Amino acid sequence: MNERFRRRAKRNDRIARWVITCGGMLVIFCVIFILLLITNVTLPLFRASQAELYAKFTLPGNVKPGEIRALGIDEYLETGFCLDSQGRFRFFETQRGSEIDLVQAPPPGNADQPLRAVDAYARLQFGLLWADGSMTLEKVNFRPAFDPANNNRRTIEHTVQHQAVFPPPTGGAPERSLARLADDGRRTRVDLTADGRLTITQLVSSENLLGETVEESHYQELTVPDYGAVRSLTLDSHGQALYAGTERGYLLRWSLEEPGSAELLDEIPAFADRRAITALAMVFGDYSLAVGDAAGQVTTWFPVRGDETSPRKSLRLIHELSRHAAPVAALQPSPRDKSLLSLGQDGTLHLDHMTSERHLLDLGNHLPLTKYAFSTRGDGVIGLTTESGAVIWRIDNPHPEVSWKTLFGKVWYEGYDEPAHVWQSSSASDDFEPKMSLTPLIFGTLKGTFYAMLFAVPLALFGAIYTSQFCRPRLRAVIKPTIEVMAAIPTVIIGFLAALWLAPIIERSLGAVFLSIVMIPACLMLAIILWQALRERSAFKRVERGYEFLAVVPVLLLAVAAASVLGPLLEQWLFAGNFKQWLFQELNTRYDQRNCIIIAFGMGFAVIPIIFTIAEDSLSNVPPALKAASLACGASRWQTVWRVILPSASPGIFAGAMIGFGRAVGETMIVLMATGNTPIIDWSPFNGMRPLSANIAVEIPEAPLGGTLYRVLFLSAVILFLMTFVVNTVAELVRQRLRKKYGRF
Fold first, then answer.
1. Minimal CA–CA distance to 519: which of 467, 562, 474?
2. What's phi and psi for 485, nearest 5 deg?
3. Pick from 675, 651, 270, 254: nearest CA to 441
4. pTM of the predicted model as reported, rounded to 2 decimal places
5. Residue 214: helix, strand or coil by DSSP?
């Protein structure tokens, strides 16, 4: 050999080896980099919440701690206020602590009377109980403004809005009072008297026949069961539900929807040891009730049905949050989500999230607090120390509703009668609980893949066996490229046809579809029995030599035709002409037009070419010597395929099936268009599902950048990546074992 040519060949081999090695390493690096990139986006979901000390100062005006009735702060943490015992709103600048304004809430009657108590609720709304027993409702409003004379510098404007006045009750000044103003103008007041009586006063405005506004007053004294003195009270923001907690640990709930006709709905012992209930508050959304007790435990409750047939809901303990070292003194919900601040009598402040049951932060450990309040955005807290000092924290808590339990476990959501796996990322109302359980999505991915593989693997494998072992070479040269071309069909076309063409056909011919499952194998068996009698003739022997499908095709067509004719008749006879109604009535199963039967056909059609091609190549590459030796020993063609060819090609066949499985797991467009996108956990083939891939495609356009939904969708991508990685790894391990067992093929 020419030495020069040999050196050039070696050089080219070295270059090719390095190029291939670098290319392979680059592919591996890119895959790992993509995994790290999407994982990095999901990591903030599990980051611990943080509190940064934003400001600390002494309240202006030499106000003593005992004179402060309430606190508040705007969403930018720039302007705060305190409400003193004279009903004055003192606004101050948070960075320097200097007073910038003082607004006097107008007291009814005697202008010099002091405040007895303040009830803070909703978003910067306050019920002021004056010394003579009268009440007023005030609301603090903050609004950003821009000054064009000062380079459009942003400032925070504040106002105190006077909303309603309630005259003093006839029985004298109460111990405690609550008042609410509903959206429809109805005013509700609840009074707890010194002797433990509860009275309800409701003012309802309506129009008479002349178009004049008439105000009706409804008064009612509630009968309070003898469960000890009432220690805590709360009303929902519309004044339609009243809750009370007693010193013997009983929870009482009244419905105030009908003016003058309050109905006691619940009277239940909250705890087995009958410890006193010291604080109550409505969680954001006015559905769940937060309960603080004398043992320092914070829990949340909401009404649920005892059973499916029960028309009434009863309060039930749902979530247990963090425990204080001292009795709970006060509770305040976040104005933005299901987070909750709880103050212990030792001055410590806990921040918890109701749905995820995560304990997020401890505040005030070294600065015992007496009063506190959320900012209007929920990302800041202002507290009052025992020395008239104000402390403001900025809260970094972007994803409090996410935990391993909410992502993968059962969670008891508001309005549900039991814990469940639910995916519901958005709603028409802002006060709902985001439900981001990935379990139904993972289940939907596996369910759709299972039905697709159940349809695709037998067809692809039998087709590969026939094409490689029984078909004539000339015919094989046509069939194999044709099936491989099927892989080039866009999946959006397959999904479109499956959803808009195939689904209505199957819905109309459901009886025929299920009858064909029986008719096709039965007709094939009858045809095989008949063929055994006909195959002795020379004319039919020629058909056996690679053209068997010519005899099978008419049988299949006849079986499908018979099923299409007999299916409606059988449905009329057995199911009164409505198989779907029978499914619902007898099996409690709904038939959705876009279901797993459609997925089996649609996604199976997309997976068949991959499995067929790899399996056919593996079967064709089995050495002819093995086949010849088997036939020489007297084995039939089918015995040779079953006992020799299939075991030898099993590593490649298994690899093809696993690659098809991975292809089905990551499929998006077909399942997006043909499943109905219902995130439920049900193995029934008559309803749909929502896999991870389709969920990402549906949700990502509406996911706010950096928000919880956005990061959970990236977590879904990580799970998809890991699923395919695990499947491929297991497939390779099994393939290597099969290869070691059955030789090098």
1. 562
2. -65, -25
3. 675
4. 0.87
5. strand
